[in-house]
Amino acid sequence: ALAAEPSADAHTRQAALRALTGIDAAHATAIATDALGDVSDLVALEAIEVLAAAAHSNAAASTPAFERLTELALDRRRPVGRRIAALAALRGLPAHLLAALDDALTGAGTEAALGDTTWLEPIAAAWIAAADGDKTWRNRLAALFATIVARDGLTRTSPALIRVLTTQPGAAVLVAAAPRTRTKPKPGV
């Protein structure tokens, strides 16, 4: 398949992946899974779109597609942009399917799979882009943003949050939710 041919240029592989989406979900899911690790972000992001289409379908490939997207979202070795794209691809699925993923990302029970402060800008950008769309998705992004801020003890004047305000001014409300200063533990507690 052309989509999996490493000698083909990225635009050609992207178009081939897109063409597979409407033809055969199982075959497209298998090829898209392989393409997730492509050196080209263009190809990898198209693979995420192919998996998203399958995950949202009633096809037999919906479960493997959902699993691949979840694995990508949780894999700390993967680039932040791809992990955020995988999360975006899962939006709109029933909450009961996403509950375990949300727990894993935010650290409920065990160490969080959520990234570090480098995630804040992409999360803020996705939150801004979702302004006119899905409130549930926007709320999930805000919760992820707040989790990183709280976990890392950031304040409104932390360099990471100043950077968010500089690059994503539309996310000021997310930054404003951060504490003004670090809270000091009470003596004897």
Beta-strand content estimate: under 5%
Tally of separate helices: 10
Which spans have pLDDT < 50 for at least 5 consecutive residues?
none
Radius of gyration in whole Å, from Cα?
18 Å
Element-level helix/strand string: HHHHHHHHHH
Mean pLDDT, rounded to whole units?
82
Largest sheet: none
State the shape. elongated
End-to-end separation: 63 Å
Helix and strand composition category: mainly alpha
Percent of residues in helices comes to: 55-70%
How many E strands? 0
What does the model show?
The structure is a single chain. The chain is mostly helical. Helix content is 61%, strand content 0%. The protein is built from ten helices and no strands. Helix 1 packs parallel to helix 3 (41-55). The radius of gyration is 18 Å and the shape is elongated.
